[in-house]
Amino acid sequence: MENLKQEKFVPELLTPLRSNIITMPKEIRKASGIRIFGRRIKSILYSTDVAIISNTDADAILAVYPFTPNTSIIESVSLTSKVPVFAGVGGGLTAGERCGRIAGFAEEKGVTGVVLNAPTTIDTIDVVSQYVDIPIVYTVVSIYTPKVELDKKIESGIAIFNVSGGKDTVKLVKQLRGWYPEFPIIATGGNNSENILATIEAGANAITYTPDYAQLKMFQHKMELYREKEEEKWKNK
Predict the structure, then answer these.
(1) What is the Cα–Cα distance from 73 to 94, expressed in whole angstroms?
(2) Of 40, 26, 18, 54, whose CA–CA distance to 209 is shortest?
(3) How many percent of the chain have pLDDT more than 90?
(4) Are 199 and 170 in contact (CB under 8 A)?
(5) Which of 54, 142, 161, 234 is the most buried (most CB within 10 A)?
(6) What is the C-alpha separation between 163 and 145, in angstroms, rounded?
(7) Residues 6+ apart with CB under 8 A from 188
(8) What angle do CA 181, 182, 187 make, to 5 degrees?
(9) What is the pLDDT of residues 122-147, one digit of tens each?
(10) Three-state DSSP string of the chain
């Protein structure tokens, strides 16, 4: 029994050419995850950088950005990613039929879910629901959004909440979990272990994570190694 309580050993295989990857914080593994089309998703990398997307151990990719949704970006991310993609398709200025067409394009390119912004109206959700047969993710950003409004959006087709509440994220997740005990919730986990664990404890099923500067410094470190080798090679010749 004592051995069963110990954390299971997980063999890890890397190669010299694939040893530098963006790794997800181990705390995220404590989340329950969300099972979508048979695949369990706990960690979600927030990025549209195809180089980072193709070199990560995240379970999925969240590709949203503060610009008008672009089909070429959706296609590029979908082609690059080795894991499921949640793609932003608008909901603010991009609404109605245009939003629906972009969502339909995203599904055709193989994304796992489409993400709508906080200003999304019921009418736009209704349109997107007619275009796609994949989960529609709605971004919740404020603790002041009333439950009655969220109820309407769920009735229109929203299948997952994506919580991005800034400093109030944990409070917002806890509020949503109180209202919806079993509804799928993705939430930003912040940039440290304590925030990630607090967000999971509040009720998030999956965590979105943005690579921190320390992880992205690996390229700088590699360049420093190259300089040292070059200097050693040529300095005394």
Answers:
(1) 15
(2) 26
(3) 74
(4) yes
(5) 161
(6) 12
(7) 46, 163, 164, 165, 169, 199, 207, 208, 209, 210
(8) 90
(9) 999 999 999 999 999 999 999 999 99
(10) CHHHHCCCCCCCCCCHHHCCCECCCHHHHHCCCEEECCEEECEEEECCCHHHHCCECCCEEEECCCCCCCHHHHHHHHHHCCCCEEEECCCCCCCHHHHHHHHHHHHHCCCCEEEECCCCCHHHHHHHHHHCCCCEEEEECCCCCCHHHHHHHHHHCEEEEEECCHHHHHHHHHHHHHHCCCCCEEEECCCCHHHHHHHHHHCCCEEEECCCHHHHCHHHHHHHHHHHHHHHHHCCC
For tokens 């509040």, what's the residue?
202
